[in-house]
Design goal:
The complex is a heterodimer of chains A (164) and B (334). Chain A has 164 residues and is α+β, with helices and mostly antiparallel strands. Helix content of chain A is 24%, strand content 24%. In chain A, the strands form three sheets. In chain A, strands 1-7-8 form a three-stranded mixed sheet, with no helix packed on it. In chain A, strands 3-4-6 form a three-stranded antiparallel sheet. Chain B is an all-alpha fold and 334 residues long. In chain B, a hairpin with a 2-residue loop joins β1 and β2. In chain B, α3 runs parallel beside α14 and α7 runs antiparallel to α8. Classes of the chains: A alpha+beta (164), B mainly alpha (334). At the A-B interface, α1 of A face α3 of B.
Chain lengths: 164, 334
């Protein structure tokens, strides 16, 4: 009984000392300060979509494959080329960023961008109409000044971020 | 100029200065703002995070809590339909007042020749402990008035905890009173001029400290609020400034108890600095406060039955041992 209590007490002291060790040791921090530091994403990162309307053949396969029902087709006439076709529109309220639409597209009209922050001030902006989808997503103004970092696996510290 | 003198005289009178400025309300407000920031920063450092940063970025987000407080102030006070509205709104305010009451009898050294004690009695230890036992009652009332199952469960847990920490708390304080032969905290502090009580009777200090941690729901015993199980315990239904008040209550209670702990066990305002003996006191208080919020990053949470077992099996035994030790020392010295 007494030995058990003393043993418990020893373990408490040890836990507190380990906590103090981490408190006083020089900082190991694995947080990425996201809007200030942007990670350089891999080549085929599944971000938001961009449409090349000249390649689009209006087949509607993207709308059929979409598991979340986020893609609708809409009749669209381009302002300059006057080219008419049924082109996809993306609802980012529903999109799960699976990338099936890019895989299925027979003419490679849809392409991936490496921008993933689908955050807007107005809810309606989450719905990308055809002409906005042609322009593609833009980097948020707060992220314009931020620096890019590369994430690497370190054996001691876990993840480290190196300036690009 | 006579008016200025008059106002200064009123402000510097101990019965106004103590509850209002030091160690009372204004000091508490500053200490709480810094303490919660420090708690979040320390936990972040140990868990390899950064913690609050973006409010006053140059100083590491030190004003984060002030920003939160402002947000609480301008939010809407929502009372649920089935709650007992008068008690629901009144009990946080009364709890806050009751938490601050023991400061009237706890001495805090002296500043520029003013003795910082609002009310000098020869039973101040008893009075402080009795006044400090008011707060849990109002926490239980809060949970009852909310008419919410989480709040009710939380206040039941507070009730269960209360009976298991109050007995060791008072017994270990009593052993200090036996050791120094006085119930007056000023006498007890003056007796520790050479040796602190914690060195004579470490059992009493240990059981008092753990009871304080338990009573203010700091981390290994954060059972009342336990946000992973009970949302926020008795405080579930509170919003806006009332939430700010009820979240402040445990920290104020921690501060008051820490002041008492330093007075009883760590020699109060000794070693003396001439004219500013409160500074010694407040440094000790800050160290103890930092240690008690540091525990958050080390410990998980005990179950209720484990905490009650610790209270009755270990702390109660330790406080009985500490009373015996005090009696033995007194007998040996006599």
């Amino acid at each position: 009984m007494i030995i058990k209590i003393i043993n418990n007490f020893y373990h408490h002291i040890r836990a507190i000392l380990i906590g103090l060790k981490y408190l006083l040791s020089p900082g190991i921090r694995i947080t990425l300060k996201y809007p200030d530091e942007l990670p350089i994403l891999p080549e085929n990162y599944r971000g938001m979509l961009k449409l090349n309307n000249e390649l689009c053949i209006s087949c509607g396969l993207c709308s059929q494959i979409c598991p979340a029902g986020a893609i609708n087709l809409k009749l669209f006439e381009h302002e300059q080329t006057k080219q008419v076709g049924r082109h996809p529109e993306v609802d980012y309220k529903r999109c799960i960023f699976c990338g099936f639409c890019i895989d299925i597209c027979p003419s490679k009209a849809l392409e991936l961008t490496r921008i993933h922050d689908a955050a807007f001030y107005v809810e309606d902006e989450l719905y990308y109409e055809v002409n906005r989808l042609i322009i593609g997503p833009k980097i948020d103004p707060p992220c314009m000044r931020s620096k890019y970092v590369i994430s690497e696996i370190d054996e001691v510290r876990g993840i480290v971020y190196r300036n690009a | 100029m006579e008016i200025v003198d008059l106002i200064l005289n009123i402000l510097l009178h101990p019965s106004i200065f103590v509850p209002l400025i030091f160690p009372g309300f204004i000091t508490i407000l500053i200490i709480i703002i810094l303490l919660i920031w420090a708690e979040r920063k320390v936990a972040a450092k140990i868990q390899m995070r950064i913690g609050p940063l973006y409010v006053t970025r140059r100083f590491g987000g030190i004003l984060q809590l002030l920003a939160d407080l402002l947000r609480y102030m301008f939010a809407e006070v929502i009372t649920s339909k089935d709650s007992d509205k008068f008690i629901f709104i009144a009990s946080p305010i009364v709890a806050l007042t009751a938490t601050l009451l023991p400061l009237a009898v706890i001495p805090a050294g002296s500043l520029l020749g003013i003795e910082l004690i609002a009310l000098r009695t020869n039973i101040s230890l008893l009075a402080a402990l009795a006044l400090s036992s008011l707060t849990p009652i109002f926490i239980i009332i809060m949970g009852w008035a909310s008419n919410n199952k989480f709040a009710l469960m939380g206040s039941l847990r507070e009730g269960h905890l209360m009976i298991s920490y109050e007995v060791p708390l008072y017994l270990s304080a009593l052993s200090v009173a036996i050791l120094h032969g006085s119930l007056d905290i000023v006498d007890i502090v003056n007796n520790q001029q050479r040796v602190w009580t914690v060195l004579i009777n470490p059992f009493a200090a240990f059981s008092f400290f753990i009871s304080v941690i338990m009573s203010t729901s700091r981390f290994p015993f954060e059972i009342t609020e336990s946000d992973s199980e009970l949302v926020a315990g008795p405080y579930t239904e509170y919003s806006s400034i009332l939430y700010g008040l009820v979240m402040g209550v445990p920290y104020m209670r921690l501060y008051v108890f820490t002041l008492l702990f330093v007075d009883l066990f760590l020699g109060g305002w000794y070693p003396l600095i001439d004219g500013f003996s409160s500074i010694t006191l407040i440094i000790k208080v800050l160290i103890i406060l930092l240690f008690s919020v540091f525990l958050r990053s080390v410990y998980p949470r005990y179950r209720l039955d484990q905490a009650i077992r610790i209270g009755w099996h270990i702390l109660f035994t330790l406080s009985l041992i500490s009373i015996t030790l005090s009696l033995l020392i007194i007998g040996w010295v006599m």
